[in-house]
Amino acid sequence: MKCRSCGAPILWAETPKGKRIPIDPTPVPDGNIFLVTREGGRPPLAMPAITGNPDRWKSHFATCPNADKHRKRC
What's the Rg (C-alpha) of the chain? Predict the structure, then answer.
């Protein structure tokens, strides 16, 4: 899947509260998200990464040049 505003590849994960979150698909050393694989075709669960997690990802909101266009207004 691709970001609809910048065209970068993304994958979708789900937060513990059930909200969808776009994730950059390549792990990075300074990522703050740990992805937990789930069964049944469900998207991975995005959990806060802790020190020592070998694979960590970043939310695409942190790297997308157009992220402000997709943020919900309060």
Answer: 12
CA dist 46 and 33 (Å) reads: 6
Residue type (1 letter), 8? A
The pLDDT tens digits for 29-63 are: 999 999 999 999 999 999 998 877 789 999 999 99
Domain ranges of the chain: 11-67
Specify whether the CB–CB gap between 14 and 59 falls below 8 A: no
pTM equals 0.83
**Exposed e or buried b for every residue in 3-40, given b needs 16+ CB within 10 A?**
beeeeeebbebbeeeeeebbbbeebeeebebbbeeeee
Give me the pLDDT at residue 47, please: 95
